[in-house]
Amino acid sequence: MDLAAKLISGDRRALARAITLVESQRTDHRAQALDLLDRLRGENREALRIGLSGTPGVGKSTFIEAFGTHLTEQGLKVAVLAIDPSSTRSGGSILGDKTRMEQLARNPNAFIRPSPSNTQLGGVARRTREAVALCEAAGFDVVLIETVGVGQSETMVAEMSDIFTLLLAPAGGDELQGVKRGIMEMADLILVNKSDGDLKAAATRTCADYAGALRLLRKRAQDPDGFPKAMQVSALTLDGLTAAWQAMSDLATWRKAEGHWQANRAAQAEHWFREAVRHGLMARLDASTEAQSAMAQEVQSVSAGTTSPDAAAKRVLDALK
């Protein structure tokens, strides 16, 4: 049985191998990955794609383990694609999410795949979108995409998910001052985690504050009444998990009924097509000896301050026409 057939049958090892294949930067592996994705496209399997972002220390991994376990107890198959930051110096990543989600990692109805960001901006890895498609083809009902952590470009995950969820800590509003508007304009659901014990009162205030902010910041055609919304959850006591899942399910059902679901996925496909073209052009530029020679000449004048970076770049690009 070939890799595609094994993956469709739900073979977890085949899924892991397929994700490794699409993440590879080797030219021959890339050709094999594209062939595999084309063969799987006709399966037309769809999962609910949920993007999860949050400030450092908010408990993303703890929440995902509790939430993922909650979903598997309802008979759902859950895949978790966790993105770990890569070092800009060594390029390495810790990839410790399986360790942090020990219980979920042993769950037969769950699959956890940590991947390095490889310094890719946007909080996700370069091939995360393709890994999502592989998880769908393998028959998973829900795919959770955990981002690196909140930042200015973190909203890239919204371009590959059906529901974008932002996790916050009680009284943690100041941590989001630099990124608040970009994140909040895209978040479908804000979950204030750690809403338990001594933090319960603070969580209630934080939830109320962000509920008001959401009403002021955004109202889109693809939002039903009551959305976007802020809710309280506790990954420790499991409070609010049922309500959070119900809210996600209700939003997904409404968007499907109103036609926003497929329209959103079509817009996302167009976005990633354009991104693929950009990356392809950059790869060709890097591989062109003429371009590299021209750049080597221009970089000297840029370093010496005799020409601006923009003017030098224009001359290099004009030479490629």
Rg is 22 Å
Low-confidence stretches: 86-96, 119-124
Largest sheet: 7 strands, parallel
Structural class: alpha/beta
Q: How many individual β-strands?
A: 7
How far apart the termini lie comes to 47 Å
Number of helical segments with 4 or more residues: 13
Order of helices and strands: HHHEHEHHEHEEHEHEHHHH
Helix content: 40-55%
Average pLDDT metric: 84
- Which strand order do you get reading across the main beta sheet? 3-2-4-1-5-6-7
**Content of β-strand:** 5-15%
**Shape call:** globular
Polypeptide structure, described:
The chain has 321 residues and is an alpha/beta fold. It has 13 helices and seven strands. The chain has helices spanning 3-8, 12-23, 27-40, 60-72, 97-100, 102-105, 128-137, 180-184, 200-217, 241-258, 260-287, 289-304, 309-319; strands at residues 48-54, 78-84, 110-116, 142-146, 163-168, 189-192, 229-232. It has a seven-stranded parallel beta sheet with strand order 3-2-4-1-5-6-7, sandwiched between helices. Helix 8 (180-184) links the parallel strand 5 (163-168) and strand 6 (189-192). Helix 2 packs across helix 3 (27-40), helix 2 (12-23) runs antiparallel to helix 7 and helix 12 (289-304) packs antiparallel against helix 13. The model is unreliable at 86-96 and 119-124 (pLDDT under 50).
List keywords for this structure.
single chain, 321 residues, alpha/beta, 7-stranded parallel beta sheet, 13 helices, 50% helix, globular
Secondary-structure topology with pairs:
Elements: H1 3-8, H2 12-23, H3 27-40, E1 48-54, H4 60-72, E2 78-84, H5 97-100, H6 102-105, E3 110-116, H7 128-137, E4 142-146, E5 163-168, H8 180-184, E6 189-192, H9 200-217, E7 229-232, H10 241-258, H11 260-287, H12 289-304, H13 309-319
Parallel strand pairs: 1-4, 1-5, 2-3, 2-4, 5-6, 6-7
